Amino acid sequence: MGLFGRNPNEAAYVGGKKHFAEVIKNSGAGDLLIWRQPEEDFNTRSTLIVMPGEMAVFVNGGTVEEVFENGTYKLDTQNYPFISRLRNAATGGISAFHCVVYFVRTAHSQEMFWGTETPIQARDKMWGVRTDIRARGSYKLHVDNPVMFLQKLIGNNIRFETQEGMNDYFVHEFQSKIKSVISGQINQMESELIGLDARLDEFSQAIEPALDEILSEYGLKCDNFNVSALDVDKSKYESIDEAQVEATRRSILAKGDAAAMNALGANWEKQQAVNIITNLSNNPNAGAIGTMGAGLGMGMMAGGIFGGMAGQVMQPMSQDAVKKTEEDPMEALTKLKRLLDAGLIEQSEYDTKKAEVLSRI
């Protein structure tokens, strides 16, 4: 018999028959949140058995007459005066009463799973990236107020009797509330969204009270709400990761150069001077300066002779060399590009030098 159907055991039911239950107990399936006793006529010596994790609710004419917690009860008028109001005229020597009995499961439900049907749109404030987030997890419920739960279901003709049916009934309200809370929490964050898993407990604790606001109207309570994962769409972070790797590489190279300078100390400048002289001696356009540079030895450099020659070395090159440089902007631009790609100059420096070269064309 369904929860809301007519009972063929009712005396007033056409074709039905009078039947007095001696023992009243829950014989429903284990996944039922609420189960209706098939018989509705009981004698005053009936025994009521209420198992742990459930409660029995006696209803007559839409009015809740009595609620029983777990235990074994002998239903007689002396112990339970409400039976006197329900008692029918004696039939066949049996004092009987008519009542509808519901068994309501108050134990925690099995774990039920949830997940956002559509992604949550969010913006990473650290990187300025708009991305999508999907959330998933699980929760449990229990009936906190059996009378309210029963009245809500019967009074509003709400038809869910199983845990699965209850999950389906609340799914849209839950989705809306969960997404709203997560979005609000993320909007308050200043850190990047990658690594949200470290804050799953915070999200879980924020969402559970919001769901209880919905469930409390039905006499229900949320238990162990859990956000097991927040899946961030990482496709838009790939370019950021590549840029960070390149920045790290440049930083390591710069630290290496600085360490070399510190290790060499004064010898660093001497080494740089040797490199300049060597380049000049290999430059056919350097003229006398190049020849002079080729004759210099490390001993002279160590003696500080380069310092006296710095003025000569830094003199303007021959007019032919200057003219060649001015006439060959392609070579200058190529060198600038190589310096930029090697990370030796910044983009702004490259743009400035490029403009200078192009202005001479």
Give the integer mean of the pLDDT values: 76
Main sheet: strands, sense, barrel: 4 strands, mixed
Number of domains: 3
CATH class of the largest domain: Alpha Beta
Distance from N terminus to C terminus (CA atoms, Å) equals: 97 Å
CATH superfamily of the largest domain, called what? Answer: Band 7 domain
Molecular shape: rod-shaped
Q: What is the number of strand segments?
A: 12
What do we call the CATH topology of the largest domain?
Tetrahydropterin Synthase, Chain A
SSE string, helix = H, strand = E? EEEEEEHEEEEEHHHEHHHHHHHH
Tally of individual helices: 12
Structure, described:
The protein is of the alpha+beta class and 361 residues long. It has 3 domains: 20-105, no CATH class; 112-233, Tetrahydropterin Synthase, Chain A (2-Layer Sandwich), CATH 3.30.479.30; 238-359, no CATH class. 43% of the residues lie in helices and 23% in strands. The strands form 3 sheets. Strands 1, 3, 6 and 7 form a 4-stranded mixed beta sheet that branches. It has a 4-stranded antiparallel beta sheet with strand order 2-8-4-5, covered by helices on one side. It is rod-shaped.
